[in-house]
Design a protein that fits this description.
Blueprint: E1 3-21, H1 23-28, E2 35-37, E3 41-43, E4 46-57, E5 61-71, E6 80-88, E7 100-103, E8 108-110, E9 118-121, H2 126-130, E10 142-160, H3 175-185, E11 191-195, E12 198-202, H4 204-210, H5 212-219, E13 229-232, H6 237-249, H7 261-275, H8 278-290, H9 297-304, H10 311-322, H11 325-332, H12 335-343, H13 345-364, H14 368-371, E14 379-386, E15 389-399, H15 402-408, E16 415-416, E17 420-422, E18 425-432, E19 443-450, E20 459-467, E21 477-485, E22 491-499, H16 500-506, E23 514-524, E24 527-534, H17 549-559, E25 565-569, E26 572-576, H18 578-584, H19 586-594, E27 601-602, H20 608-620, H21 626-630, H22 639-653
Parallel strand pairs: 11-13, 25-27
Antiparallel strand pairs: 1-10, 2-4, 3-4, 4-5, 5-9, 6-7, 6-8, 6-10, 11-12, 14-24, 15-23, 16-18, 17-18, 18-19, 19-22, 20-21, 20-23, 25-26
Helix pairs in contact: 4-5, 6-7, 7-8, 9-10, 10-13, 12-13, 17-20, 18-19, 20-22
Length: 661
């Protein structure tokens, strides 16, 4: 049989935006240990960190002197080849000044098997060096640095000539964009909010799905359930609109007309606390934690004091006040402090005790006298919060020509899948074709590795591993296990789940490939830890939970709450939500509209399981696992048959991005 091979270079891009708040304060800190590090971000399946260092320059004082890119680690057997660029835009948004840009002329090579971070010194754009003031947002006191990383990967693909047609990769998930478009166009609103003098329209389904408070108002026994207009008190129209922007997009809006992002965060924090929008509240806490200064610490403390859900930010303010006598003296002189002293004497007493204890500790420290004379030295604190949640994800790892791979990989040598996200962490599957250790050389070792450094967190994880016979002649082999991943335990799996002989005789496809299905469930518990550090070092910030728009829609579909459309497929009643369908699948929406007034909409020529799979995609932007559909009541169907039926459904109803198949 004739074969063909194609060699290509794939470019995998990742971009990150680093906002350096308090830029002028950072310049006053001096050049020693004055470094700002970004959060880790993904590019090409690897984790990267952007590092900005400040040094003193002749005639310019302390300024941004260098930018470097760190590859956290490379556990693969191949070097990582990458190019990068740095961009700093005109903050006014008027385009008066061109962006300050720098691009690498040549690729940098990061070594293979590197267990520690490897840095690549980039460059500060020349335009920024020459005209620094142009690129600093004076109102927000913020410098924004954009970094783009391109990972270059050489790929060789072999296949039979009968498979010469290529299917392009599906576009990026559009769920967030579609829900945002629903807000922008304001199609089919069913509730109007009266805020100040403004009338603001919205959708009950979206609000109730995202906020337990709105759910109680619209679907519980409260008066708002039947009201077409709802009056909002104690909140400005600007803040309410910003909150709605988050509800529809899972992101914070950009401040308009050079509005202060800290002031917006204060207002939104109160709104998020009232409407129980946890991710929005954490975002606001993150901004306020990074922005604590001697001038605003009491204002922030008054905002969050006795607000139970914001105790992390409250603790940050208290620790900041207790960090230095000068800071405490300045706070003590404010009207807010005097008000707290009258209304909450026990709370103020606790702060004074902390100040006294810190003073004793400083007197005991032999290095305290050498640093106390620096009037610009400040200490900040922030809380790290991990919300409680159970998040699942699946990954299909296919190893082509498995028998040949086993011959070329000895004991202890693994092949690794690409990294994939579950629960806010990056994971990878490591398969040892000839065993992980010598005593297991007749077995295949299968392990799940945590690629993200967990810090102090303990990541509770349950795993389901499935190896299926693609020819459907043998029963699938399935395994289940649990493990708590932490800093010193980031790899766990099965040393001998299946012998190599069994895998070769039962589970290889017609092309000699072995496919392993992994289902990962991550359970995180609510926990809080407070970190104190000097502002000249990296400041710990509140961890913000990942976007959960898809999860909210998935729960809405599974619960069948608030459904308003009933389909009849193979005599099965299937409930759905007309607003979501109208937003995500115009063709299916046309079918619903054509049946206006009918009790149900009949869908012929399609299996109920296939229709449910399409609805799952419409609500989540992810097709269900093919293996789960094969194991459904529609028994006897092969994986290829199921995929064919899903493709036919995509062509018929054209849900956005064509089901990703």
């Amino acid at each position: 049989m004739a074969t063909a091979s194609t060699h290509r270079t794939a470019v995998l891009r990742g971009a990150h935006q680093l906002n350096i708040l308090g830029y002028t304060t950072r310049r006053r800190l001096g050049g020693a240990n004055n470094t700002v590090r970004s959060r880790s971000f993904d590019a090409g399946g690897f984790l990267w960190t952007l590092v900005c260092r400040f040094h003193e320059k002749l005639l310019k004082g302390v300024t941004l002197a260098s930018v470097s890119l760190e590859l956290s680690r490379n556990e693969t057997d191949e070097a990582v080849v990458a190019t990068a660029s740095v961009r700093i835009d005109d903050p006014s948004g008027t385009g008066r000044w061109p962006a300050a840009e720098w691009c690498s002329e040549e690729a940098n090579i990061f070594p293979a098997r590197s267990s520690t971070a490897v840095a690549w010194e980039l460059a500060v754009p020349d335009a920024f060096r020459e005209h620094e003031a142009r690129y600093v947002d004076e109102d927000a006191d913020c410098l924004t640095v954009h970094c783009t990383v391109d990972v270059h990967r050489e790929e060789s693909v072999e296949g039979a000539t009968s498979r010469s047609c290529l299917v392009s990769m599906p576009p990026r998930p559009s769920l967030g964009k579609d829900i945002h478009r629903l807000r922008e166009k304001m199609w089919w609103p069913d509730v109007t909010f009266l805020v100040d003098e403004a009338k603001i329209q919205a959708h009950r389904l979206v609000l109730a799905m995202r906020s337990p408070v709105f759910a109680a108002e619209f679907h519980g026994g409260m008066k708002e359930k039947t009201m077409r207009s709802v009056r909002i008190h104690d909140m400005s129209a600007t803040t309410f609109k910003a909150m709605l922007y988050f509800i529809y997009t899972d992101e914070l809006p950009k401040p308009k007309n050079k509005a202060c992002p800290v002031a917006m965060a204060r207002d939104l924090l109160v709104a998020a606390d009232f409407y129980d929008l946890e991710r929005l509240r954490l975002m606001c806490e993150n901004i306020l934690s990074e922005s604590i200064t001697i001038d605003n610490v009491m204002e922030t403390l008054m905002l969050v004091h006795n607000r139970h859900s914001c105790h992390r930010l409250e603790a940050s303010c208290v620790e900041y006040m207790a960090s230095d006598p000068d800071v405490y003296d300045a706070a003590e002189a404010t009207e807010e402090y005097k008000e707290l002293e009258k209304t909450c004497p026990d709370f103020i007493n606790g702060i004074t005790k902390k100040v006294a204890k810190r003073a004793v500790d400083r007197n005991r420290s032999p290095s305290s006298s050498s640093s106390s004379g620096n009037g610009n030295r400040e200490t900040k604190s922030a809380s790290r919060y991990n919300p409680s949640a159970v998040m699942t994800g699946t990954h299909e790892f296919r190893i082509e020509r498995f028998s040949a791979v086993r011959k070329t990989h000895g004991v202890g040598e693994c092949v690794r899948s690409g990294s994939f996200p579950v629960g806010g962490y990056q994971w990878a599957i490591a398969v040892y074709p000839s065993g992980e250790q010598d005593q297991y050389k007749e077995y295949i070792g299968i392990f799940l590795k945590l690629m993200t450094h967990p810090g102090a967190a303990k990541v509770k994880t349950s795993m389901s591993i499935k190896i299926d016979d693609p020819n459907r002649k043998s029963m699938a082999s399935q395994f289940h296990c649990t493990h708590v991943y932490e800093q010193d335990s980031r790899s766990y799996g099965l040393f001998k789940p299946i012998s190599a002989a069994t895998a070769t005789s039962r589970y290889l496809g017609h092309d000699g490939s072995l496919t392993i299905y992994y289902k990962v469930a991550v359970t995180t518990e609510s926990c809080t830890s407070t970190t104190i550090c000097d502002t000249a070092t990296r400041i710990a910030i509140v961890d913000v939970s990942p976007s959960n728009m898809s999860w909210h829609l998935e729960q809405l579909l599974a619960s069948e709450e608030c459904w308003d459309v009933k389909f009849l497929v193979e005599e099965n009643e299937i409930h759905a939500h007309g607003l979501v369908i109208a937003t995500r699948s115009p063709a299916l929406h046309e079918l619903v509209e054509s049946a206006t007034g009918a009790d149900h909409i009949r869908v012929d020529g399609m299996k109920a399981s296939t229709f449910k799979a399409m609805l799952h995609f419409i609500h989540t932007d992810e097709p269900p696992h093919v293996g789960d559909l094969v194991a459904s009541p529609d028994a006897g169907d092969s994986s290829m048959t199921i995929v064919g039926e899903m493709l036919a459904a995509a062509c018929r109803f054209r849900p956005e991005t064509e089901l990703g198949i």
